[in-house]
């Protein structure tokens, strides 16, 4: 059931493309498009399980049919098993950064799942070195800024998380890894399980930024408990915050940004359509949010596709889109100088389109 109520005409599409955007919720492993996946499987001699699709078309069919988050994750962890060498991690991230630039995304804060690779015998340094080299090259080649956020897999014990945090110490020290996140199956693994991991990292590296997936499948208390026990300053997804007025008030007062992923929520059956998301309510109540891609290779769209999907359901004005873009810049973890650059670019694009779009 598609609830496309508003047109995204050619002018609006160009505006949304040119509008400077920031990505705050993207799993690099979730940018592994089927063609690259099969190419890497061949070059690395990886035998995928017999239950795994064998063609791009079969992959696409599977991606139309995820029952829920767990069903997706089961497939995603197998998919990432083709990533072996530093070059693989570099190619994956570089392909994404090129696509982001094309979409008008000028600053990306991207997740990666080291435990998904360590478990398969891939060294931490191989993963981070490939991803970091791509961040540096993307800045030179595309002029975009990019930050790495390491995620802990919540289905693994927190003792495992502690080990990974210790291995990552030198990268946090150098600023190569900028933040910590928490992902994977949400409901069975509440935030409290990882309180020690977050506390340890914050103690060792006080300037580290903290976020966590919460309120995607878990209820609104997962959002509150992530704020209270993990001391995060951003929430990934957070759509279920809409069920608590007091939480929405808190998010507004403390300007805690939700990194929403509209197309992901539809593909994983969180909502039947983008039009069912409480984006208009968040807007009205001043809950800051950004619009993001999550796992774009699997969920049928990158950042611009997500912006367009939101526009066709909510029909925001140019002023409202400007506010969304500025909120994303304010909620980013880049320095004030970069934020000012991005804000100036927003001004230029909005002035240009004010004459074209009413
Ligand atoms: C994820 Cl959509 C989503 N939720 C939780 N963990 C994830 N890892 C990759 N995509
Ligand atoms: Zn996610």
From TrEMBL:
Entry binding sites for substrate: 295
Gene3D superfamilies hit by this protein: Metal-dependent hydrolases
Main location: cytoplasm
DNA-binding among keywords: no
Keywords, sorted A to Z: Cytoplasm, Hydrolase, Metal-binding, Nucleotide metabolism, Nucleus, Zinc
Cellular compartment(s): Cytoplasm; Nucleus
Cofactor: Zn(2+)
Catalysed reactions, as listed in the record: adenine + H2O + H(+) = hypoxanthine + NH4(+)
Enzyme class: hydrolase
CDD domains associated with the record: ADA
Biological role: Catalyzes the hydrolytic deamination of adenine to hypoxanthine. Plays an important role in the purine salvage pathway and in nitrogen catabolism.
Entry protein name: Adenine deaminase
Classification of source organism: Eukaryota, Fungi, Dikarya, Ascomycota, Saccharomycotina
């Amino acid at each position: 059931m598609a609830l496309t109520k508003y047109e995204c005409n050619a002018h609006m599409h160009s505006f949304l493309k040119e509008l400077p955007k920031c990505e705050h919720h993207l799993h690099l492993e979730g940018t592994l498009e089927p063609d690259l996946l099969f190419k890497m499987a061949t070059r690395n001699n990886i035998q995928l399980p017999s239950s795994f699709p064998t063609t791009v078309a079969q992959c696409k069919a599977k991606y139309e049919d995820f029952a829920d988050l767990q069903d997706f994750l089961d497939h995603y962890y197998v998919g990432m098993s083709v990533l072996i060498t530093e070059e693989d991690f570099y190619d994956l991230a570089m392909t994404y950064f090129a696509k982001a630039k094309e979409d008008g995304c000028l600053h990306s804060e991207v997740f990666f799942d080291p435990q998904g690779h360590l478990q398969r015998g891939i060294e931490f340094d191989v993963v981070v070195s490939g991803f970091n080299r791509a961040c540096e090259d993307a800045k030179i080649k595309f002029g975009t800024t990019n930050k790495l956020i390491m995620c802990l897999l919540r289905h693994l014990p927190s003792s495992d998380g502690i080990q990974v945090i210790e291995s990552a110490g030198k990268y946090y020290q150098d600023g190569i890894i900028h933040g910590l996140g928490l992902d994977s199956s949400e409901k069975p693994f509440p935030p409290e399980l990882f309180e020690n991991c977050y506390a340890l990292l914050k103690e060792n590296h006080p300037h580290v930024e903290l976020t966590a997936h919460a309120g995607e499948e878990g209820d609104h208390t997962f959002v509150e408990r992530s704020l209270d026990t993990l001391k995060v300053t951003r929430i990934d997804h957070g759509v279920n915050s809409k069920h608590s007025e007091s939480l929405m008030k808190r998010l507004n007062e403390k300007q805690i940004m939700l990194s929403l992923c509209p197309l992901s929520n539809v593909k994983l059956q969180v909502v039947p359509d983008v039009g069912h998301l409480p984006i208009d309510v968040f807007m009205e109540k001043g809950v800051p949010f950004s619009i993001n891609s999550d796992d774009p290779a699997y969920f049928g769209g990158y950042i611009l596709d997500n912006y367009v999907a939101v526009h066709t359901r909510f029909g925001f004005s140019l002023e409202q889109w400007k506010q969304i873009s500025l909120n994303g810049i304010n909620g980013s973890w880049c320095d004030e100088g970069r934020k000012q650059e991005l804000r100036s670019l927003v001004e230029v694009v909005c002035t240009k389109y004010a004459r074209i779009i009413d």
